[in-house]
Write a structure and sequence with these properties.
Blueprint lengths: L1 H52 L13 E5 L6 E5 H12 L6 H20 L8 E2 L11 H7 L5 H13 L4 E5 L2 E2 L4 E2 L10 H4 L23 E7 H9 L15 E6 L5 E6 L2 E4 H8 L6 E6 L2 E7 L7 E2 H9 L4 H8 L4 E4 L5
Parallel strand pairs: 1-3, 6-13
Antiparallel strand pairs: 1-2, 4-5, 4-14, 7-12, 8-9, 9-10, 11-12
Length: 348
């Protein structure tokens, strides 16, 4: 009797209970497999979206400086914005989007460095940096930037800017493990300038030296002219030097007296005054202090090379180097001497 009961229970287990358990396990396994497949598919789709946008990157975890206070000069408003979001607006304002990718990456690193240097050396009481290029660095809203580009280029241009900023996220230029004062300008005219010849200082910035860059003459920023009549020239000079007198028939009365090591004008003689090259540039609205003066049909012509103060990285020079095969770090080391490219979280 006991054996019959045991056989009966075994029969029930084998025929009904065991198949049910196996089926349940199969269903659970199938469910897990389907979930894993779905997760893998989602990850793949996300990766494909990033690739299509041109902004593949891993978000950098800023220990400091991740959010900055930006002063808008026209409104006086102070806006809190993520550093790299701000830099997209800066890079799109400072460098043409059709420049080489590595040049734009170099600009992103330079702009990030310049921003952090400004934060550490505050100029504004209620903000870290402003949107005025004459004071800090240029900035343009995304909406305005897109509207100024051709409609068919807007999406690709902005994606390119984001790729350069987010793709270099966290990277800055350092000297003695501190962010440098990363000056930059449009076109050096082939040779950069020392800060002492522009602002009278810079001995604490040994990373800013005179360097030569080939290929800058291929850009529209390289050459320009300003031509004035004798009366126009005299009137502009009299706005500051009311007692100035010039004998226009005497070649010695308008003469460049001295050049800097980078072939920029240090001093010019205008009649009874000797004026610095930087002041001459300001008075006559010249693009740089790399100029020559000639007389032509009773007029005075300034023939100018380059665009900007000439200190630090030349933007067209960066683009020229990128076209020659240099990457962003090569470009930075070309324009800034004895520097290191580090992550901002590694600062002292």
């Amino acid at each position: 009797m006991k054996k019959s009961a045991l056989y009966f229970l075994m029969f029930i287990f084998i025929c009904f209970i065991l198949p049910a358990l196996l089926t349940k396990n199969d269903i659970a396994t199938s469910t897990v497999d389907e979930a894993n497949k779905e997760e893998s598919k989602t990850n793949q789709e996300n990766q494909e979206k990033q690739s299509e946008s041109g902004t593949q990157y891993i978000e950098y975890n800023y220990e400091n400086y991740g959010t900055i206070k930006l002063l808008h000069g026209k409104t006086g408003e102070v806006e809190e914005v993520k550093l790299d979001d701000y830099l997209c607006n800066v890079v799109s304002a400072e460098m043409p989007a059709d420049f080489e990718l590595e040049a734009l990456k170099a600009q992103a690193i330079v702009a990030r460095t310049y921003t952090i240097y400004k934060i550490q050396n505050k100029k504004h009481d209620n903000a870290d940096i402003c949107d005025d290029s004459a004071c800090c660095q240029a900035w343009i809203s995304k909406e305005d930037r897109l509207n100024r580009w051709d409609e068919n280029l807007r999406e690709s241009n902005w994606a390119k800017i984001e790729q350069c900023v987010y793709g270099t996220s966290g990277k800055i230029i350092t000297y003695n493990n501190q962010p440098i004062n990363a000056f930059f300008h449009s076109n050096s005219g082939g040779t950069t300038e020392l800060p002492v010849n522009v602002w009278g200082g810079g001995s604490d910035m040994p990373y800013l030296q005179v360097v030569e860059t080939s290929g800058e003459d291929a850009y529209s920023q390289y050459a320009s002219e300003v031509q004035l009549t004798q009366d126009e020239l005299l009137a502009k000079l009299k706005e500051k030097y009311f007692d100035i007198q010039i004998d226009f028939n005497n070649d010695e009365d308008i003469k460049i007296l001295e050049y800097t090591d980078s072939n920029r004008v240090r001093t010019v003689k205008f009649g009874n005054h000797e004026i610095s090259g930087t002041e001459v540039r300001s008075i006559f609205g010249l693009r740089s202090t790399n100029f020559e003066i000639t007389k032509q049909d009773g007029n005075i012509k300034f023939t100018v090379k380059g665009y900007g103060h000439g200190v630090g990285m030349s933007q067209t020079g960066a683009d020229s180097l990128a076209k020659q095969g240099s990457n962003c770090e090569d470009i930075i080391h070309h324009f800034y001497a004895d520097v290191e490219i580090k992550e901002v979280n590694d600062l002292n």
